[in-house]
Amino acid sequence: MTEVPDLVRTQRESYRGAIRMAQAAGAAAEAAGIGRDVVELVNVRVSQLNGCARCLSLHVPAAQKAGVDDARLHLLPAWREATLYSRLERAALEIAELTTTVPAGAAERAAGVGLDAGLTEEQITAIEWIAISIGAFNRISIMSGHDARWPED
Fold this sequence. Notes:
This protein has helices at residues 7-10, 12-31, 36-50, 53-65, 70-74, 87-101, 106-116, 121-144. The protein is mainly α. The protein has a single domain, classed as AhpD-like. The mean pLDDT is 96.
């Protein structure tokens, strides 16, 4: 197998920029009243969509620490069919998926989903920035060949 360059090690300032983006997105979510549990649900779902083992290994435990119960984590790939997600969580997951997959009309659809759920512009854009941020980290980890890193039992 070909050795791949580690984007973190070789481009530290670019990586620091990604960290600053994630911190700003997290602060915006908090300021908009989006709880850490919803932020971590978005982080996990986007990481599932992008197939990032490293980010899943970090954000599943973070979601649990933020109060996301096992049922919501286990059913996350089928969240549309599960009734246990709140209106906010459902809107956040839909907005995150649209931001990640970017189908035609994604911006308008995401805004509509958020407004239909009673979210403010600040909440909608905070969720979009969280999805954009974790998506960037997914790509950094995947392209660097980072492996999953589970906490010791």
